[in-house]
Each structure stands twice: as C-alpha cells, then as structure tokens.
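To assess whether ligand presence alters the predicted conformation, the chain was also submitted together with CA2. Input:
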Amino acid sequence: MKILVINGPNINMLGIREPEIYGSENYAALEALIRETCAAEGVTVEIFQSNHEGAIVDAIQGAYGNADAIVINPAAYTHTSIAILDALKAVGLPAVEVHISDPMRREAFRHVSYVASACVKTIAGQGIDGYRQAILYIVNEQKKCEKSTRGTRATDF
Ligand code: CA2
C-alpha cells in the first residue's frame, strides 16, 4: 500500500511561531512521525508540501494510479479551494483530512471545509499525532476490506 501525504501552505513553518495553536514540533518532526508510522505499518509513503494551490492539485492528480490513499492537510486552502475539492473527487482515492488545530474552535472563517465532502474522515485538534491517526485509519480500513473480500473470488481457495 502507498499513501501520499499532502501539506498545504505554511505547514513547513511549524514550530516557528504560534506553538499554542500548532504545538512546538517542527516540520522535520512531522515528516519523521509520518515516516515512522508508515514504516511500522509496512506502508510506502510520499510526503509533499506546497504553498501553491495548483501544485497541490497537480500532486493529487499525480496520485491517480500511483497511490492507494491520500492524507491531506490543505491548511488555509481548506477554507477556500474548490480546485482541491474537485481534484480529490476526480481521482476518487480514499482521502483523510487532517488539521493540527481544531478549526471549528477558531475564527468563523475556518469553520467551513471545502474538501471535507471528498474525504472519508476528518481528524482535527490532535496536534501532529492526527497524521499518525489518519495513516492508522487508512491501514485499518484496508485490512477490513481485505478481510471482507477474502475467499470471495473464484481464484481464492
Ligand atoms: O490546523 C491546521 O492544521 C490548519 O490546517 C493549519 C492552517 C490553517 O490555515 C487552518 O485553518 C488549520 C495554517 C498552517 C500553518 O500555519 C502556521 C502559522 C504560523 C506558524 C506556523 C504555521
């Protein structure tokens, strides 16, 4: 299984400012957590971060035929981007939306997520551990799927 993890604008600045909102871990620590979680689960991972909406759309399109699932924190684009929503719908891969903070407990302009309707789950307010939870959710769903289809094909004995 391969998971593509996408981070939007300013996530690369983690740990530099606003630790009371985003915690004190930096982006390198986030990458390390994602890689450790995937390695422990036997999952291949690709991590992508961009400050540009179109580059994020390109990364989502690039996952088509190349990844089995997406973990995405679109950051501020969560609240504005129909293009990212459409890209997630276009590729049709299971996607989990992650937010380090809980946008619902912040300013009103953060209460709307344009991408949520294209995601199978949203994890918010768990700090960077939310990425670990998202990966484990995907792995567990995959295991459930394998279990329910096992032995149902004519070629299975
Ligand atoms: O809580 C989240 O993960 C967010 O997606 C983070 C975004 C924010 O626009 C969303 O509403 C919620 C912001 C990305 C990080 O921005 C930083 C700001 C200052 C210092 C470090 C990072």
